[in-house]
Amino acid sequence: METKNVMAQVESMPEMIRSEFDTLDMRVRRLLNHNDLLSVKRIVITGCGDSYMAGLATELAFEQIAGIPVEPMTAMQLGRYGSPYFETMFPRNPLTIGISVSGTVARTREALRLARQGGALTVAATANPDSPVASEAEIVFDCSVPDFAPAPGIRSYRVSLLMLYLLAIRLAEVKGRLTQDQANEQRQILKGTADAIEATIQAVQEPTQKLAEAVAADTNFVFVGDGPNYATALFCAAKVIEAAGRHAMGQDTEEWAHLQYFVNTQPETPTFLISPKGRGHSRSVEIAQMMKSVRRTLVAIVPEGEEEISALADWTLPVVGDVPEVYSPMVYPVAGELFSGYLSRAIGEPPFRGFSGDYAERGITIRNSAVMDAIPS
């Protein structure tokens, strides 16, 4: 796996969204029958790594657009701790969506198995419909798209987001929260994020490369966001870890003030503050002031033309295009993704450590871990 693939995957996203959008939308429309859609009272979205983050990123969409409460849970948490306590008043609830692009992740397989035993309607979202994960679910959603040069999940993350956003819109349409015209308008707004991604790539490609070269000696990075972009913070941190092997963490905006604010071992730690000028923006401005007071290297990922955080930032990576906050996780990871690839190149560290030496087994227990058939009493 080569570093250049990271940047190539980012650059390929606009065309992938435009070319695959209608196919994914058709698959979502056929995923559940009318009665199953009407019966959904609660949704649980589960997975590991990026797949779990996709659930976090789309929680607001299901609640704001479809009016359905959603609980994103890691596969470990859902399978071994959550599924035994499902509410049984409503049959086939909660709708449980397990995401595993490879279809081989043991914990996601386990979570779907135990959720199904608990009476949930289970959906496996995977690019491998014949996989072990797919075999555990009642319904399989094919989230495959054309193959591309391998890199830490960038294209696959957007496909997971698109599938979940489109399902939220479909649920709203069937339940009467949106008219057909309103639902189609939302679909076009979502599809239009391809344009924003394309414009943002052009705006931040050179700055992210220069930033990566400037901070190549740093070994810790922090990404901060709130609402749906808490998931973006986690996701961008994950890309730095996977692509460059450097320690990175994602944190909620408010929680940063309670915790990372007090770290003084590396006061200049590059800290990326992600704010689409949504509900959390006023707090993000205050947090930016706090970050500068303790000498953090502040990197602002904000809308083009934003002034309050940008005025304080050491680096500004603008997001171009008018993207509603509910769909902003489609676009706001772009700068972090490019940064991870350029950091990998700057320090000469291949993604996933090249799957060599101590990493040659490729985390084999992720796939081959024993799967529980039932929760011990």
What report would you give on this structure?
By secondary structure, the protein is of the alpha/beta class. The protein has 2 domains: 4-191, Glucose-6-phosphate isomerase like protein, domain 1 (Rossmann fold); 199-354, Rossmann fold, CATH 3.40.50.10490. It is 49% helix and 15% strand. It has helices spanning 4-31, 34-39, 50-66, 75-82, 106-117, 132-135, 155-174, 180-191, 193-214, 228-244, 253-258, 281-293, 334-347, 365-368; strands at 43-47, 70-74, 92-99, 120-126, 139-142, 220-225, 247-252, 270-274, 297-303, 315-319. The strands form 2 sheets. It has a 5-stranded parallel sheet with strand order 2-1-3-4-5, sandwiched between helices. Strands 7-6-8-9-10 form a 5-stranded parallel sheet, sandwiched between helices. Helix 4 (75-82) runs parallel beside helix 5 and helix 7 (155-174) packs antiparallel against helix 8 (180-191). The radius of gyration is 20 Å and the shape is globular. The mean pLDDT is 95.
Strand order within the widest beta sheet: 2-1-3-4-5
What's the number of structural domains?
A: 2
CATH class of the largest domain: Alpha Beta
What is the average per-residue confidence, as pLDDT, rounded to a whole number? 95
Number of helices: 14
Any idea of the CATH topology of the largest domain?
A: Rossmann fold
CATH superfamily membership of the largest domain? Glucose-6-phosphate isomerase like protein, domain 1
> What general outline do the C-alpha atoms trace?
globular
Strand content: 15-25%
Category from helices, strands and their pairing: alpha/beta
Please tell me how large the radius of gyration is: 20 Å
Q: What is the CATH architecture assignment of the largest domain?
A: 3-Layer(aba) Sandwich
Q: Report low-confidence residues grouped into runs of 5 or more.
A: none
